[in-house]
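so the lab meeting is tmrw and i was supposed to have these ready like two days ago... anyway. pasting both below. for each one the top line is the aa sequence and the line under it is the structure tokens. i havent really looked at them closely yet so no promises
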Amino acid sequence: MKKIIAASVGAALLIPGAATSAFADPYPVTQPTDTSFNAPSKVTIGEKIKVRVKSNTDGDAGAVCTGEFVLIVKNNNNEVVKQARKPVDNTKTFRFKLRSKGSYRLAVKYQRGTDDPCGKSREGQDLRVSKRGN
């Protein structure tokens, strides 16, 4: 009887330890990552917009990081009008056109991949689209 009581107390002590380890961070960030990009601040309707994204990490980002760059373009109503993804590298270029006049918000973020040592980051910038000839 003493063995059963000792076994049940030991099992009760092990269960909380197992439950807390399940909520640990899946993969710790060991490589600080910063995303920066270069984009125009004003374009005309239908003009090709070129956004060059750079990952600021120590060493080759393509060899170390397993995530991807995500480009998000939102209009004044906070609706996503464009979204694109590319695998991470030291530099990537996104190209697109906007067909409506107005103010937009560009955001580029680094989204972590599986077993990724790089940290996530986000950078934003405003973009104004005007009519042709203005």
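ok protien two:
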Amino acid sequence: MSDYVRSLGTVGLGVLGAVTGVCGAVVSRMDARVLGVPLPYGLVLAVAAATLLFWQARKLCGLAGATAAALGWGVPVVIALWPRPEGDIVFAADGFGLGYICLGVVAAAWNVGRARDHHEEFRTTGMVDGRARRTR
């Protein structure tokens, strides 16, 4: 993959991270009541979407992609934490709001921490003289 395509992919992953963060902030509050017990399907969907984005960003563009997606996701989440002048908030201090933030940060940190630069990634293709031969 050329450096130009990798740069465009990294920018695109940052934008996708921002879209995922905004959508997750809205969707994470959705729940269904079954016998009076809230089932947080929105929280599960929002965290799963963010986790899958970080994972795919790491697979596609390595450390730069995972970092761009995580930063893109983090910007709208941090902005949503600030109270508005009217006193409204997006994330409440309950299980839904804190769960989305904490689980999203864990997913981002896990994928950024596991990312390797694609320039350094090698695959083992076989054994040569008792040692693993590595190629790009």
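from a quick look at the 2nd one: Residues 118-123 have pLDDT under 50 and may be disordered. The two ends are 12 Å apart (CA to CA). will dig more after coffe
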